[in-house]
Amino acid sequence: MTDPIKYFASRVTASEMNRREFIGRSMAAGLTLAAATSLYGKAAMAQEPKRGGHLKLGLQGGASTDVIDPAKSSSQFTFAMNRNWGDTLVESHPTSGLAVPSLAESWEPNADASVWTFKIRKGVEFHDGSELTIDDVVKTLNRHTDEKSESGALGVLGSIKGIENKGGDLVLTLSEGNADLPLLLSDYHLVIQPGGGYDNPNAGIGTGPFKIDNFEAGVRATFVKNENDWRTDRGFVDSVEMIVMNDATARMAALSSGQVHFINRVDPKTVGLLKRAPNVEIQTTSGRGHYVFIMHCNTAPFDNNDLRLALKYAMDRETMVEKILGGYGKVGNDFPINETYALFPEGIEQRSYDPDKAAFHFKKSGHEGSVLLRTSDVAFPGAVDAAVLYQETAKKAGIDIEIKREPGDGYWSNVWNVQPFSTSYWGGRPTQDQMYSTAYLSSADWNDTRFFNTDFDKILLEARAELDQAKRKEMYHDMALMVRDTGGLILPMFNDFVNATTTNVSGFVDDIGNDMSNGYVATRLWINS
Amino acid sequence: MANPLARVRATRHRLKETHPLSVLIAERLGLSLLLLWAVSILIFAGVEALPGDFAETYLGQSATPQAIANIRADLGLDRPITTRYFEWLGGVVQGDFGNSWASGAPVTEQITKRLGNSLFLAFFAAAISVPLAVGLGMVAVHYRNRIPDRVINVLSLAAISLPEFFIGYILIVFFAVQMGVATFPSTVYDNMSWSERLAAIALPTATLVMVVLAHMMRMTRAAIISVMSSAYMETAELKGLGAFKAIVKHAAPNAIAPIVNVVALNLAYLVVGVVVVEVVFVYPGMGQYMVDAVTVRDMPVVQACGLIFAAVYILLNMVADIVAIVANPRLRHPR
What ipTM, to 2 d.p.? Predict the structure, then answer.
């Protein structure tokens, strides 16, 4: 099955799509009628979602500083909570990453993608019984972007200049064209709240499949089914309990003893042990997060592209994925995009470990002596091990890397984006444009490789407003090559999201959007008894 | 005219003659307040010295300069450190610990729940471990250098030598995963029945008992042995006092001081030092609460937790000293 058809099948399984719709769409995606019909039967038979039951999740990432206010969501726990009780205007497609409708039914850009009109869904009810209106939508977006905003989505929405209600439609005006705008609205902070959440941001009243029953920050949250949910293809269980479990071993014990149905953040080092438990299923999803070694392109000795290339060739990517990620990841190619992004540039040669080329470029660079690399396990799990591994493979190319272990507390303010060569981590972004704008645009605050390339900046801004997908893909191809061949980024690996469920639950969707089935895990799982 | 200072001194001296214990307690309480004040300055300065302030750490990677500025302005973080400290102190003196910066909820309300959980766990751990330790210590003395003594020593030392999280994991593996008889995770929450709560804390309590047992047991054993071998016990025996009477009148008052001191230290540990056990067992106590607050530099919460921890230590040590003095006439009337 190709990806779109696989996804359609999963929608059928989750009874989100009827026979006619499935067959129609599958045929559009290239399947014959007979094949589509039989596939529909299979998918529908395979797993009919069972309704009812009490679903328990053990999650890493909650803290007693958490709040319900979606604007202030910053932990994995509140991220998954938001998905339970609220909806965003737009969602991202689990396998293609493209924008799909949610509270916004449809949308239309103007010619240069700088003005967008969204049709808001009718007949949707909030948990308190009031009806969703265009007013609520406008106020919500206002609260996340006004001058007093403390929202985590403020950076994403920076280019929105006007938020208006025009005849019942939402009209967003941007300071410059952005073809990706709908996807930006799928950000998990942007949960639509009644009255925009100005009155009581922590009320937890939304349009989602579950209502908040009880919330103790850093301890647990419980939810009950929203009987008036506007969708029937989600929220299969009667109640959900999310428990904060920040200890990896505690999560594993709770899952293997059947106390919870789902855990996140399984440690790659011990995933082999967890697999042995008979009642456990490991759920891995390709992700956009990447473990990186970053050099400042404007600071000696890294201002020399030959030295940067030497260090790139000295990285043994396969071994990194094997040893540091326990095999749960994919090799990187020194640009921050992988095939999970829409418009992924295909056909770029994979860079691999080549001591000869590394030695050649190192010699050409004329650099003498060692190179200082700063690291800490705060950068990413296993960063110190990765640095040592790198030191070994570089040694074979005649490059001497000196490792300095930095204290974990304050690593992000004192080392990352400050020192010229360090280990770091990047979570993914919804679009290529976002990723590049965040960290590779000359003017970006987080240009942590000090990559200043005016040609690159120009193409990035052009691509942002380009509505022709083919042209846009071509531009992203060029940008990827620039970063890969002249940038300061060494990207050995993309890490997978490793979650686990017990075998008596079904419905987990491998969603490339983010960890935990893009946070929707509790709304997608059902219990088989 | 008499010097007022001299008069105060004289009064103090007179009070000390008539109510020695009350004066001592009053003095200790006064000193404790001074100590707590010093602690609050230390914590404040410490959190300030950590890299990154609340606005930066709380927003993390999604921080934008505007959002940071908004939070700072909102909380008044842009004002000088001394202003903020005295403002906070002013509130505390009036019993107001302020609101958590992260959640906006009153600190007192949140802490009451967490502290209640911590005390609940500590109480049961202490109720089991203290009698057990003292009892085992006495048994060990009775069978000194014989097999029961050796067994008690080896087992309790083994328990204290293992890191507490490891003991926790072992208990979880056996009792929760393999046998399935114990409750795990140990999360407690509102509207949980009393028996459910007790079941939930069974494993963490067992872990804590094993961790604190050896220290108290060995001190009991050592203290009793040293007293029993002293000259006055021999005298008591020689002057014809029965064994029981000799222990009550002479041995106990002298042995009790070191034991109570160690017990107090361990009790304090049970309240304030069990963050690792809390994390392993997913137990919502004070430790995790404070660590979360420090992570995002949530000053009012860190301060309140720090002061409570310090107060617990100070109070328990004071109680230990007073018990030692009351129990021992020699300390009660110092010369």
Answer: 0.83
